[in-house]
Amino acid sequence: MKFMKNKSIILLFSLFLGFVAGFTACSSDEEIIPKTLEEYQTELSAIITSEIAKVQNCVVGYDKGNFKSELLFADYRYNYMSALVSAEATLAKPDLTIVDIVAANKAIAVPGKAFNDNLYISDRRPIHELIVICDTLIAHTPEGIAVGQAPAAERNTFIAAISRAKTIRSTSTTIERQVLEAVEVLNQALTVFQSAIIK
Question: Which of 53, 86, 161, 170 suits a disulfide with 189, CB 3.0-4.6 Å?
Fold first, then answer.
């Protein structure tokens, strides 16, 4: 998720060091040798190629690397892809300069962060699939004391457990371990609720 942001920061820092090394003397015996224009161009080109492939293959879903929001996906995808394509065109200029590379890198940073911050960092499918099962069960199990119904307290407890699982599913920072823990907790709540349904 943070790949693009980190790579951009590294590239900008490298460019900065290159400029500093060109204009100041080093106090130690080691001399910092700035990268060439071609090296900066190659680095940014590799980042852009990788990010274009990622954006083109990205879908909305609950798998690792999927985009979180159907509402935001089209706009964020368009904005980032446009910035990447424009930066790619800049790198192809015959009179390319380091200043152009810095500007191209800056131009993709903001839409890149917006896009990448909306990608899941872990696979949410196990908890999502269980939530679907639980939502279906609660929808078909009304509150009551007749056969096929469930007492209010048990029903409300189960609804709260589903709600907590949905929060874990939608939280950006949820990792694989937390997904597995949420599955275990919701499975336990499901078992308790199923036993509370009037037979």
Answer: 161
**Fold adopted by 125-196:** Substrate Binding Domain Of Dnak; Chain:A; Domain 2 (1.20.1270)
Positions in the chain short of pLDDT 70: 1-30
The rounded distance, in Å, linking the Cα atoms of 160 and 191 is 14
Q: How far apart are CA 63 and CA 195, in angstroms?
A: 32
Measured distance CA(83)–CA(114) in Å, rounded: 12
Tell me which amino acid residue 61 is: G
How deeply is 3 buried, as exposed, middle or buried, from its count of CB atoms within 10 A (0-12, 13-18, 19+)? middle
What tens digit of pLDDT does each residue of 30-54 get?
Answer: 677 788 999 999 999 999 999 999 9
For residue 158, the number of C-alpha atoms closer than 13 Å in the C-beta half-sphere is 29
Return the structure tokens found at 198.
Answer: 């009037």
Segments in 117-151 forming alpha helices (H): 125-139
User: How far separated are the first and last CA of the chain, in Å rounded?
Assistant: 48
